[in-house]
Amino acid sequence: MQDSYCIGVDVGGTFTDVVLSDGAQVWRAKAPSSTAALGEGVIAGCRLAAQRAGTTLEALLPKVVRFGLGTTAVTNVIAARTGRRVGLITTRGFEDLVPIARVRRVPRDGWLVPPDGLIDRDWIAGVCERVDRDGRFCRPWRATMP
């Protein structure tokens, strides 16, 4: 058994594909995906790939040096406009940036109108804080306004 492995996972809407490699050999596996529990497909696919490599997932995981995960789950939710309602917390004064960020227009009923937003403006909240380019707080967040 090798000392190190790499795992690549692609979670799709129907199946989760897994590729396991030790640098010399490659094992592939496919497991069903569930939008309600994406992790289950990842674990099932990784477990099957480990079995194909002649080991267990529990024995394999400590030897994994690289684990890559890609998914279209979020893209599918955005495209279908399904999923949970989301909000956004941003720096005070920037609450309108997301709603007006896209100046493009889409045709609707003979008119060019802004596309539907991903976040309702009522669900965007600003907090009084500032962060510099290195992630340090210039002005820490405060629960109340000055």
Summarize the structure.
The chain is of the alpha/beta class.
Describe this structure in words.
The chain is of the alpha/beta class and 146 residues long. Helix content is 21%, strand content 33%. It contains four helices and ten strands, in the order βββααβαβαβββββ. A hairpin with a 3-residue loop joins strand 1 (5-11) and strand 2 (15-21). The longest helix is centred in the N-terminal third of the chain and has 15 residues, at 38-52.
Overall geometric form: extended
Let me know the largest β-sheet: 4 strands, mixed
Task: Count helical runs.
Answer: 4
Poorly predicted runs are none
- What's the N-to-C terminus distance? 62 Å
User: What structural category arises from helix and sheet content?
Assistant: alpha/beta
Number-wise, the strands total 10
Secondary-structure element sequence? Answer: EEEHHEHEHEEEEE
Strand residue percentage: 25-35%
Radius of gyration of CA atoms, rounded to a whole number: 22 Å
Helix proportion of residues, in percent? Answer: 10-25%
Q: Biggest sheet: strands side by side, in what order?
A: 3-2-1-4
Average of per-residue pLDDT values: 87
Question: What attributes characterize this protein structure?
Answer:
33% strand; two-stranded parallel ribbon; four-stranded mixed sheet; 21% helix; 146 residues; 10 strands; alpha/beta
